[in-house]
């Protein structure tokens, strides 16, 4: 973190300058903050050479360059110490996407026998700042796996998804949690709640499919239930690609023409002047599937017409 003077300076200008000026000056103040290297007097920092920097040199603050110079030195020695752990925190705050930083940090945590629950809390704070950072989520998963304790994790993913319904990393983490720790109870209900909040949320539909496929499976009763739910969603939002994708996934094994009620529903929508690409694509696939099963030329002609309308 910057010395207090940097924060004070930003607070003072907040009273007299425009937002753009404030952002510029605070950024400059941050760049002037330096890394306190007094704890590393015995370490020879390793700075990047011009060749290592590449053709296009990325502009970094002095603090960034110093932190990573000392980080490289300690990492090369594989030093396991409190100061190395603190340094990884500095490095992670400056660049949370650096995979090596998190790898080294986990190694130090393990060797020093640190409280991993506190590290999970650290991850939570980092995720609040960068909610879609793969490395932080991966680090968190490995910690939970080592702890073998998912307490609070479903609640955490829920809080993250409340901020962004489509946060892929939060959905992925939740999917891993319920699969690894067998936390299937109430997840079908949860997926339905999330779909109601945003029916176009493809992640919520995918999650629902994963839960069913991993538990009851799509037997006849479940399939019919899911079809009815999906058709109700499509009736409200005929262009909702997420719902159509889910419907296609449900009927794929048996073939769309096997579900006469679905085909009838789609034909009704078409008669009501609904011509969404997803609707026409489904009818084309259903008619073609029926033709391949029966060799009835009538369905071949219907498939051709649906395809022509889709292309136009």
UniProtKB/TrEMBL annotation:
The keyword Magnesium applies. Its cofactor is Mg(2+). InterPro entries: Prenyl_trans_a. It comes from the Eukaryota. One of its GO terms (cellular component) is CAAX-protein geranylgeranyltransferase complex. Transmembrane segments: none annotated. Residues 1-22 form the signal peptide. Its EC number is 2.5.1.58, 2.5.1.59. It holds the Pfam family PPTA. Keywords: Magnesium, Prenyltransferase, Repeat, Signal, Transferase. GO terms for molecular function: CAAX-protein geranylgeranyltransferase activity; protein farnesyltransferase activity. PROSITE patterns: PFTA. The keyword Secreted does not apply. Belongs to the protein prenyltransferase subunit alpha family. This is Protein farnesyltransferase/geranylgeranyltransferase type-1 subunit alpha. The lineage of its organism: Eukaryota, Metazoa, Ecdysozoa, Nematoda, Enoplea.
């Amino acid at each position: 973190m910057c010395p207090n003077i940097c924060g004070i300076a930003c607070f003072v200008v907040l009273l007299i300058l425009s937002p753009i000026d404030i952002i510029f000056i605070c950024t400059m103040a941050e760049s002037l903050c330096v890394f306190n290297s007094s704890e590393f007097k015995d370490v020879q920092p390793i700075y990047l050479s011009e060749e290592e920097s590449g053709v296009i040199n990325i502009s970094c603050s002095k603090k960034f360059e110093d932190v990573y110079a000392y980080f490289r030195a300690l990492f090369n020695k594989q030093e396991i110490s409190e100061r190395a752990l603190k340094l990884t925190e500095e490095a992670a705050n400056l660049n949370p996407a650096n995979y090596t930083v998190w790898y080294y940090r986990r190694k130090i945590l393990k060797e020093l026998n640190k409280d991993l629950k506190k590290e999970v809390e650290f991850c939570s704070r980092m995720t609040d700042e960068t909610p879609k950072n793969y490395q932080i989520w991966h680090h968190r998963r490995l910690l939970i796996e080592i702890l073998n304790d998912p307490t609070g994790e479903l609640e955490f993913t829920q809080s993250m998804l409340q901020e962004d319904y489509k946060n892929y990393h939060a959905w992925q983490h939740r999917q891993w949690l319920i699969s690894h720790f067998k936390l299937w109870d109430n997840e079908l209900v949860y997926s339905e709640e999330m779909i109601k909040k945003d029916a176009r949320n493809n992640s919520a539909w995918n999650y629902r499919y994963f839960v069913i496929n991993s538990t009851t499976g799509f037997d006849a009763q479940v399939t019919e239930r899911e079809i009815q739910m999906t058709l109700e969603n499509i009736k409200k939002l005929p262009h909702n690609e997420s719902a159509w994708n889910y419907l296609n996934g449900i009927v794929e094994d048996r073939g769309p023409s096997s579900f006469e009620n679905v085909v009838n529903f789609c034909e009704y929508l078409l008669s009501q002047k609904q011509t969404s690409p997803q609707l026409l694509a489904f009818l084309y696939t259903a008619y073609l599937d029926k033709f391949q099963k029966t060799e009835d030329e009538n369905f071949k002609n219907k498939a051709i017409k649906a395809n022509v309308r889709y292309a136009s």
